[in-house]
Amino acid sequence: MAEKRTAKKKGSKREKSERRFLPSQTQTTKLALGGGMAGALVLGAGVYAQWIQEPPLSYSPYIVACGALALGAALWFGEGETAPVRVSDAGVAIEKGSEISRVAWCDIERVFADKDDLVIKSEELTLSLPIKAHASAVSWILSEATRRVPDVMDVKRSVVNGLPKPKDVESETVPLEAVQVAGRHCAASDKPIAFEKDARLCPNCAQVYHKDHVPKQCATCEQELAGRAVAV
């Protein structure tokens, strides 16, 4: 009976997860849109010159090839330019192929809008995402950042007013990959974290502490940490 209860307890352990936001399918860059239109026009002209006009132009196959190449390139780059965004207790991340570039909440120095992009700046890494294509993600990021690290917020009210309200249905839930903390230093003792198992994170801003030096209050966001620090 004891073994069954132990197995059940292990099986019921809650997995860490994060929200994954896909870019709006209706958004594309002006360059991709213009290239697609030009490619379609050239392709159409090539088709006409090759198969409809009598006699066909000798160089019409080259027109068809150029048009098809331009249209294909516009579709390829238009689809692949805006990457998915992830938001969780660990911070904000952008998917770049098979790699994930993440900035922890505690590392963010400033969140601001630069023209049509939301910029999340830290000392070592800066993330930038298009506001229109990622309206839902931007809305969620601003909401979470305001709650977790309000001092870094530098976003005008006009940007916030144009965003939808954060809703669960606007994202999918995916497992949170292991947060890389080895090599960082404890924010309380400055002791280096040699192994992930020795690290404890602030549940609010993801600041890193050594398990033997967790303070009562987070040094970054000043939230209460007693009994709330999270193992990696």
Provide key terms for this protein.
232 residues, 12 strands, 5 helices, five-stranded antiparallel β-sheet, PH-domain like, alpha+beta
Structure description:
The chain has five helices and twelve strands. It is of the alpha+beta class and 232 residues long. The chain folds into three domains: 30-80; 85-175, PH-domain like; 178-232, no CATH class. It has a five-stranded antiparallel beta sheet with strand order 4-3-2-1-9, with helices on one face. The chain has a four-stranded mixed beta sheet with strand order 7-6-5-8, covered by helices on one side. A three-stranded antiparallel beta sheet has the order 11-10-12, with no helix packed on it. The longest helix is centred in the N-terminal third of the chain and has 23 residues, at 30-52. The chain starts with a helix and ends with a strand. Mean pLDDT is 85; it is low at 1-13.
Summarize the structure.
With 232 residues, this protein is α+β, with helices and mostly antiparallel strands. Helices cover 31% and strands 22% of the residues.
CATH class of the largest domain: Mainly Beta
Number of domains: 3
CATH architecture of the largest domain: Roll
Query: Segments where pLDDT lies below 50 for 5+ residues?
Result: 1-13
User: In angstroms, what is the radius of gyration?
Assistant: 25 Å
Taking the sheet with the most strands, its summary is: 5 strands, antiparallel
CATH topology type of the largest domain: PH-domain like
Shape: elongated
Based on DSSP secondary structure assignment, what is the total number of beta strands? 12
Name the helicity range.
Answer: 25-40%
The side-by-side strand order for the widest beta sheet comes to 4-3-2-1-9
* N-to-C series of helices and strands: HEHHEEEEEEHEHEEEE
Strand content: 15-25%
